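For consistency, the fold was encoded as tokens, which produced the following:
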Amino acid sequence: MPPRKIRVLIVDDAVVIRRIVSDVLAEDPDIEIVGTAANGRIALQKITQVNPDILTLDVEMPDMNGLECLKELRKTHPRLPVIMFSTLTERGANATIDALTFGASDYVTKPANIGSVGIALQRVREQLIPKIKALCQAPHPVTPARAALLAPVPIVTPVAGPALAVPPRRGAIDVVTIGVSTGGPNALAAIIPHIPGNLPVPIVLVQHMPPLFTKFLAERLNSQSALEIREAAGGEELLPGTVYIAPGDYHMVVERKGARIVTALTQAPPENSCRPSVDVLFRSVCETYRSTVLAVVLTGMGQDGLRGCEDIKRWGGTVFVQDEATSVVWGMPGFVARAGLADRVLALGDVAPELVRRVTTGTSSWFDQPASVAVAK
């Protein structure tokens, strides 16, 4: 018996967008389009008729827009996956952050130039299909085979370059670095506001998002938190009690400038198809802070952060990951956990208290350590 296809309802007031999304999804043998709707009110009626597995939902529509539809939908279907379709504009970015707060699962951005149909189709194909499949994966029972899959596997150290002589663990944490993607805004909203404003270390963070979106995310979290949260501009000194979010379309790294450690931004090529990339940030953090790093990998598609966590563990740092049960997609944290790199696998609600506990138990600082670490020949 062939596997059941993923049933998709497309909600958008623009005929051209409905056609583009329909054409893209129709190409995939695992996906079935069960209906379209021109506004949120029609969509709510069709949901009971066609029983979709997932919705694509436009933000701006007449009669009932995407945010209004989402609020009503969550009253009756709290777990139905919803992917918002938003524009790469200030208004679209702000509305998308609102939608994620109201319970949207993820988002994709509309093609900027739908006059070029081929480019529009390709961009929607690359963004939308992987997210639909990731969000509609059936829960996996913990069979013996599944348990073997989840068991730690050996860490594979890249052949190129010498192995590091890991410095002794001294217990201190001098920086927290976080990587997150799909489901990230809600995960961060469950963590950052629960960290006290007098946290004695800085936090540097990559959330996979385009420009403007990261700015509004930082503003939203800042309004909810005792910590100071800002979108990094490059050149800022890392200060305790402050969160620096990598801006969309820029890698963020940290580097030592005399007695200070500062942020730097670069548009080097994407890594893991991402810019900003978690691996890029993690690599720079462990090179700068060595063993006094606490890395946290939260919900997200793909495996960005895996190589960075390998580096952090080789230097003697600490790694926490979010567990599968509370992740929207257990891709990024799952890869790290299965590689045996996680010191703790935590439910989302446990991340903030455990992070604070780990940070506040150390007594030494980065500046007490030797200026260099020996490298094995």
User: Anything to note?
Assistant: The chain has two domains: 6-135, 155-366. Residues 138-170, 363-377 have pLDDT under 50 and may be disordered. The first helix runs from residue 15 to 26.
